[in-house]
Design goal:
This protein is an alpha/beta fold. The chain is built from 11 helices and 25 strands. Strand 1 and strand 2 form a beta hairpin. It binds 2-acetamido-2-deoxy-beta-D-glucopyranose (NAG) (4 copies).
């Protein structure tokens, strides 16, 4: 009994057919409906699978088998949610609920929405029809929805959008047409959507950007156009979308981007170009996006990130280039102008074997660097600007464990085991160290002469000290040679060699010379302390005499 009461008895066609065949039966039906209408006056009818709250004016029906809209609910309800049921059509019973603000009929079996279905829903603000089987909407389907701000038609079977299908929705802010089968968008399809902020056209079968249709979208803030088959973005596509802050073109089939494609996007903050077929980083094409803060470029076909690859993107904070299977090299100075970079995610680039020294230098704000799952064999020391770095993940690479990465071993050892990205670094080569954690390999095994940089520093200091002492001793001996000679007089001082030496010294104006070197003391004197006023005939040594 209950289930057919919900059926569409207000539908004129079925009514007249019923009347022709079973007059009494239909009278009975009417009677039952009347009784129901009376009970509604109490405001308390509620289908068994639903929760009806007459205070908050909400009806929420569980996943179930409802195949038509319940007609006997409280007519004042404002919020009706019947997700995951088997509703095939929105019949005229919807007209009872003219106070609705929120209607969610997602995940049902809706195929067709008759024209003017919502003409009494003047207050409706959100309409969720996503994940049904709706094949078309006409320019009268959405008539009457003058307060609507959110329309979700994601996951339906729409294949084209005709002119002015949304023309009545002057207040619409969010329109989701993603995951349909749209191949064609008429030039005036979006006419009237003067307040639209979010537009989802992703996951359709578009081959050309609907440039003309998009022209009127000056208030658009976010545009999702990924998972289509565009091949290229023509120049000027976004030229009037000055308010756009987010542009998603992930998996959009792009082979290249024309110069001037991103013209007009002076407020863009987020750009996703990942999962396309770009054979080079579109450096010039993106150069005008000076406000860009987040950029996703992974899963493309380029092999190198060249010096100054992201020139002009001075405000970039997050860069993600992951899953780029042909990428081999990140050149020195690749991110030269991106001095505000905070997060760099270069993971899962299976052929990435070289990040040149200096590739990450001059990036003082880097906080997070993810280099996991690449093919790195080594990393130059001093590669990372450590000042603000908080997260470094270099796990799952193919490190060649030799003395060149001793610094890395020391770093790993100094960090606590909680640091996942540093904890699990394994050696790939040489063969003898294969699959050994770098953490556990000793410096000697890495082939380093001196295991500890501190020890090395100490040894260096000692060497310098010894050299200095020897120099000092030599100088001291030189200055004191007179006294030493005197002390040795009578010894080898009388020998022919001694005499010869004395004569030799005399030719060098011995007296002058000795005054300058403070002849009265046999200590080392700093040249600045030379006192030229000590003697009367003192003169500076001419350069030629030295
Ligand atoms: C709506 O579409 C029909 C045909 O599909 C057309 O004849 C009519 O002019 C359109 N109305 C408006 C207001 O665009
Ligand atoms: C982009 O690619 C298409 C087809 O692959 C080609 O015809 C066109 O010349 C390319 N444009 C640029 C700017 O490289
Ligand atoms: C880095 O990128 C991978 C792949 O897109 C993602 O799964 C991961 O969460 C990212 N990590 C960070 C820290 O952004
Ligand atoms: C790790 O950190 C904890 C506390 O932060 C400390 O007690 C522990 O000794 C550290 N372990 C190593 C190996 O440094």
């Amino acid at each position: 009994m209950k289930s057919w009461m919900w059926r569409n008895i207000w539908d004129e066609k079925s009514m007249s057919a019923t009347m022709r065949s079973q007059n009494l039966y239909s009278l009975l039906t009417l009677f039952i409906v009347l009784i129901h209408q009376l009970t509604i006056v109490d405001g308390s009818y509620c289908p068994s699978d639903c929760k009806c709250d007459d205070e908050t004016l909400m009806v929420n029906c569980n996943e179930g088998h409802l195949d038509v809209l319940p007609i006997a609910l409280n007519p004042s309800i404002q919020r009706l949610v019947i997700k995951n049921n088997k509703i095939k059509t929105i019949d005229s019973s919807i007209q009872f609920y003219s106070e609705l603000i929120f209607l969610d009929l997602s995940y049902n079996h809706l195929i067709h929405i008759p024209e003017r279905t919502f003409q009494y829903q003047k207050k409706l603000q959100e309409l969720h029809l996503n994940h049904n089987k709706i094949g078309a909407i006409s320019n009268k389907t959405l008539n009457g929805l003058t307060s609507l701000t959110v329309l979700n038609l994601r996951g339906n079977f729409l294949d084209s959008l005709d002119d002015e299908v949304f023309v009545q929705l002057g207040k619409l802010e969010e329109l989701n047409l993603g995951a349909n089968r749209i191949t064609k968008i008429a030039p005036n399809a979006f006419k009237g959507l003067n307040n639209l902020r979010l537009l989802y056209l992703d996951d359709n079968i578009l081959t050309i950007m609907p440039i003309i249709a998009l022209k009127s979208m000056s208030n658009l803030a976010e545009f999702y156009a990924g998972t289509n088959s565009f091949t290229t973005i023509p120049k000027g596509t976004f030229s009037e979308m000055n308010g756009l802050t987010k542009l998603e073109l992930k998996g959009a089939g792009l082979r290249n981007i024309s110069e001037g494609s991103f013209e007009g996007l002076e407020n863009l903050r987020i750009l996703d170009l990942s999962d396309n077929h770009l054979e080079k980083v579109p450096t010039e094409e993106m150069g005008s996006l000076t406000r860009l803060e987040e950029l996703y470029l992974g899963q493309n076909d380029f092999t190198v990130i060249k010096e100054d690859a992201l020139k002009g993107l001075n405000n970039l904070k997050t860069l993600e280039i992951t899953g780029t299977l042909n990428l081999k090299t990140v050149e020195k100075g690749a991110f030269n102008t991106n001095t505000n970079l905070e997060t760099l995610n270069l993971s899962s680039n299976k052929k990435l074997e070289e990040i040149q020294e200096g590739a990450l230098s001059g990036l003082p704000h880097l906080k997070t660097v993810i280099l996991r799952e690449n093919a790195l064999t080594s990393l130059p020391e001093g590669m990372f600007p450590w000042s603000e770095l908080k997260t470094l993940d270099i796990s799952s690479n193919t490190f060649h464990c030799d003395c060149k990465i001793l610094w890395l071993k020391n770093l790993v050892a100094s960090k606590n085991a909680t640091n996942e990205g540093l904890d699990n670094i394994l050696c790939s080569s040489p063969e003898i160290l294969k699959d050994q954690p770098l953490r556990s390999v000793s410096a000697d095994v890495l082939g380093c002469d001196h295991s500890d940089p501190h020890k090395q520093a100490i040894i260096a200091a000692v060497l310098v000290g010894v050299a200095a002492s020897i120099t000092a001793l030599v100088l001291l001996l030189f200055h004191c040679r007179k006294r030493i000679r005197e002390a040795l007089k009578g010894g080898w001082g009388n020998s022919a060699l001694g005499r010869k030496e004395r004569e030799y010294q005399k030719t060098f104006h011995e007296d002058d010379y000795m005054t300058r070197f403070n002849q009265n003391s046999c200590s080392l004197v700093h040249p600045n302390q030379f006192n030229y006023n000590n003697g009367q005939n003192v003169r500076p040594i001419p350069v030629t005499e030295l």
